User: What shape does this take?
Amino acid sequence: MITSEFFIDPNRCIGCQSCVAACSECDTHRGVSMIHLQYVDRPISVQTVPVVCMHCDSPTCAEVCPADAIKRTDDGVVQTARKPRCIACNNCVLACPFGVPKMQVEYSLMMKCDMCYDRTSVGSKPMCASVCPSGALYFGTREEIEHQRPQSQPVNSFQFGNQVITTKVNMMVPRNKPVQHIDVTSAMNDEPIGIEDPFE
Amino acid sequence: MSDQLSIPPDGRPYHDQPQWRNDFPIDWPQDELVARRDFTKFLVLTSFAFVVGQIWIAFENFSRKRRGQPPIRPIAKLDAIPIGGAITFAYPEPHDDCILVRTAADRFVAYSQKCTHLSCAVTPEIEKNCLHCPCHHGYFDLATGAPTAGPPRRPLPRIKLEIRDGAIYATGVEVRA
Assistant: This one.
């Protein structure tokens, strides 16, 4: 039984785009990267965050799909929309709390990270985790990550408004601090931080 | 099905969930599952549909034979059609478009205008001695209505003609296999 899990540690991300390049080399979706490397707050920081699918236990993308196109395998990996079923309605793109699904307009298909299902289902590491030079994306057992990163602990429960989301993929947070859940939906109305106009 | 993995958003167990959640499962194994009973139901219903279809075809054939030939109806005056010209008319019903071609001074041919492939309207090409269907480039022989090229496999239904007192009449439809 494979017990390897995916761990994301955005602190370690150096924005090198290796994961993006590796992802788009995959034969199942060549040329289209399923991982998004996003800037946290571009005007004040070069800090980047790799965004892969979190593979929720209750996938919101699949819940909102009107065409029954998004499926979860029995090992908990949420797959790209099924091509014969996807109607390119963008519901999943709008609904995902992590902003993972992206509409590929030229194929009329939602494509998203499937944790390299062709690789992980046979015991290999996902493409992005196999190339990440700083360990921001790590694929291995829980014992390995706890041994390697004693300062961090994995978290797989997230709060979005009243919705608590538990995921298959873990996010690394500081171990000695209480886990803070930011209510993203209410924070959306707050003043943006760090975007002071430099020309003012 | 209680062996689904995905947790519904309200967190309640599967037997408390509405029926649609079982009908449209998120989990791949349940989505792929075809029960033996469902497959048997599909087979029985499909065979039943085929039987009904065959009975309907037999009934249609029977009623068509019973109906006999449609009534005789005038099409046009002879001098209204130039030699090498064609006119369209409806026979026997107002929506059954037909085409009448005068290939020589005393030679007339008339066919249903519906291509026997997918019912597009055929157009005469008298200089090439054929009828052409522009949809998929089907060709019919102008003299007999038999298919000569393209997808159609059955000849066009021929309209039986009769000339009386300087006018041309349609007297029946000959459907050929």
Summary: Chain B touches chain A through eleven residues (CB under 8 Å). The beta strands of chain B are 73-77, 86-90, 97-104, 107-112, 123-125, 130-133, 138-141, 147-149, 158-164, 167-174. The radius of gyration of chain B is 28 Å.
